[in-house]
Specification:
Number of helices: 1
Strand order of the largest sheet: 1-2-3-4
Helix content: 55-70%
Oligomer: single chain
């Protein structure tokens, strides 16, 4: 009886650990996807700046992207998400 209880406890700990790790991986994947999206929209607006040589400001969903001669800024509300300077 004690062996079964110990085995059940070990199995329970393993399942809980697996669930916690899976949640963390999902959060990391979501964050990585968001960072890729932010980088991509920053690059697209920077390319538009280099085509026209005029400062460009664009709204993409909840992000505001500004490209100027010396920097590219991606903002989410008042929060700077990406800043690239020369």
């Amino acid at each position: 009886m004690a062996d079964a209880t110990v085995a059940l406890m070990i199995l329970t700990v393993c399942v809980v650990w697996f669930c916690i790790c899976e949640q963390q991986l999902q959060k990391q994947m979501q964050r990585a996807s968001q960072e890729i999206y932010i980088s991509r929209i920053g690059k697209e607006v920077a390319d538009r700046y280099y085509d026209s040589h005029q400062p460009v400001t664009e709204q993409r969903g909840k992000y505001t992207v500004r490209a100027m001669a010396d920097k590219v800024v991606v903002m989410e509300g008042a929060k700077t998400r990406l800043l690239i300077t020369k």
